[in-house]
Amino acid sequence: MELSKNTQTQQRTFDLFDFLYKYGTILTILILIAVFAASNPAFIQGSNVINILRSISIVTIIAIGITISLSVNGFDLSVGSVASLSNAIVISMFVWFSQNTVIAIISALAASLIVGLLNSFMIVKMKIPDMLMTLATMFIIQGIALTYTKGATISQNMVMPDGTFSEGIISQTFKKIGQVPWIIVIMVIAVVLVHIFLTYTKHGRYMYVIGGNIEAAKLSGIPVNKYKILAYVLSAIFASIGGIVLASRVMTAEINAGSPYLMDSVAAAFIGFSVLGSGKPNAIGTFVGAVLIGILQNGLVMMSVPYYSMDIVKGTVLAFALGLTYYKQKH
Amino acid sequence: MMLAEMKDISIDFPGVKALDRVNFSTATGSVHALIGANGAGKSTLMKVLSGAYGHYTGEILLDGTKVSIRSPRDADDFGIQTVYQEVDTALIPYLTVGENILLKHDRTFINWKKLHRKANEILKDMNIHLSSKKLVKDLTLAEKQMVLIARAVSTECRFLILDEPTAPLSHTETRELFRIVNDLKSRDVGIIFISHRLPEIFEICDQITIMRNGRLVSKDYISKICQNEVIERMLGEKLEEQFPERNLDIGETLYEVRGLADSGKVQDITLTARAGEIIGIAGLVGAGKTELCKTLFGSAKITAGEVWLHGKKLRLRSPHEAVKEGIALVPEERRREGILVEESVSANLSAASLGQFTKAFGFLNEKAENEKAWGIVKNLGIKTPGLETKTKNLSGGNQQKIAIGKWLLTDAEVYIFDEPTKGVDVGAKKDIFKLISALAKRGKAVIYASSELSEVIGITNRLYVLYDGQVVKELQTDRTNEEEILFYSTGGEISGTIKKYPNTAKNIRPF
Q1: Domain residue spans in chain A?
Q2: pLDDT per residue over A75-134, tens digit each?
Q3: The CATH fold of domain A42-330
Q4: Nearest CA to A175 among A94, A109, A107, A103?
Q5: A100 vs chain B: nearest CA distance in angstroms?
Q6: Is A13 helix (H, G, I), strand (E, B) or coil?
Q7: CA of B364: which chain A residue's CA is closest?
Q8: Which residue in A201, A209, A224 is closest to B361 by CB distance?
Q9: What pTM value is reported for the model?
Q10: ipTM of the complex in this document
Q11: Looking at B28-85, which runs of residues are DSSP E strands?
């Protein structure tokens, strides 16, 4: 066939939908910035930009984990609970057990590693569908976190069951994690590392291959199970990092503190599919998705939209972004 | 009688002009063959007629009246039904046969009794022995196809498009299908029959339309044309010998399987392959060829037996281990198992050997990857606009070359091919045969599993006949013929009623 000749007949006309698919998310962000800035010039001041980046960093970090699980065509619902658990563990290590920063962080990461391994074992070996399994772990981990904290908020100088006050204090180093610039730096490092991992390494390629067609991946000799396990473990670890950063930012462990981040992170990762027309989960896209959500939230607050109405707008934007992704896939 | 005409049909896809002013016409009460090499546009043309592609130019006339068919619904209204090659895409596996047949007869409330009665009537009418209460997921491929035909017939069907219906069917199943086709023909249904199998077309069709490169080549009565003419017109060139010369330089035993069994169909398989030898696994559809190939590749659990390669006993618990030991499999279900449709040509070609193209920490060396991929593309004559093209945009033959090509980069010792020519046109078939024969000449052991007996005879040195998951006979290819293989693969020796196959007929080489 004369394909080389045929390629020249390719449509050169401007395809609005194709354009929207590729740049729709970014265009939406720009329009939102313009609208918010017009209504309140303080919106684009440097301090507010930093503010937005700070506010999205936890969502982004958790969403990066979700992105990895999505890349193998999996789905991890347990990230919110894992973040809660990590938050509780890291604060309790300081407050209850007077441990240092390194031990506190390592304990939290270790706990998430166990969750990740449990998830992947049940999904890979027991063949439980990922969504259902991680739904189950979501409850289990949420319960464990609650039981661990005895349903109470952990904070410095809290009243212990025996009536005394807790003596441990949260270290100053740990406090820095949740402050600018470190909180933003951690987010950027996570995005860049995972972007490089997924795009430029063999392992990332394999993950996309597995996500694209698991049968073909298996029959190409790719160790499918190994990569699936890796994906769920990484997902849990990023959720845990999110929980640790959250702990540092609020310096307490509220009950179920991580849960609200689940849906925002899922939204960011899915919006990310359509960024620059990649059509698959990707780290940069996830970041852009998180930025979109962050700007929306921040701008709406500035425009004095009440917090209880915020989800209406957020959901609408998500539906719009998903529309762009899936409408395109059909055509 | 009713006449369907398609006039000046053109259709574009990004990068490809799939149809170029094609004229096609057919009438009810006849079987019309539509044939062409892969990528000739026959499936596309039929997708236009069935409303799957709405963005064509040109017109469609039914009995001289211009009609507008832009969606499957439109086609439905005019009584045009299609049974696609991929039957699973049109069936709902966890519903019953009856529900699947009467899928489109939606009333608000379902009367289950009536539904099954009606479905049974349709099945009985067509002489299909199938319970309407069976779940579709438990059916064989052939039965699923019957369900789809039954669904088409259950409506006011005037034209039925069958897209390569016989490709996955066994011999008996094909006969059964032909009986139904003839039956429909006598009921004044117009059947458009897309196929690559010429003998079948000559057996069942009345007229034949040949296409090439998105254009119409000719339309004839089947009685006025011969097989070689058809092939010449399909290819646009003279037909040469299809199979390459056999490799006679055969070395030591390379690969040995002893008493192999899996947890399902495969039982007690013993076979050997020497370096440079192509061994055939012949057998009817359902004989367990695919299962055997997968077991040999570590994809199904081995419950008994041993596999030896180069005098070393292998542990094959996963395809990953098989690949590491130097075994490659080109699976039967190309789109589902062989290639990654959403990935680029180069990503597909390197998928099995990505380790070669990595630097420290697993970073990809895309330059090296693309160089090697380009080498394969050129070497195998894969027709693609570029390395970044998604494989789903390539034709079946080119996809198959990619599925094979990815193993050429791994440098395996044993190559297993499971129905490698399924859904591949004559031109690409020849390339694939050449490729397989070249592998043998390089001293590899090749296992060629196929239900196309002519191919097994054409390309192998030695063959094993598989029947019900067991090897029932080992044959030297140059001392056997299609009848003998068929005899054993239908269980001839096992049944005991017939004695040994009388070895009289001489070796027949089909076109």
Answers
A1: 42-330
A2: 999 999 999 999 999 999 999 999 999 999 999 999 999 999 999 999 999 999 999 999
A3: ABC transporter involved in vitamin B12 uptake, BtuC (1.10.3470)
A4: A94
A5: 32
A6: coil
A7: A201
A8: A201
A9: 0.75
A10: 0.75
A11: 31-36, 57-62, 65-67, 80-83
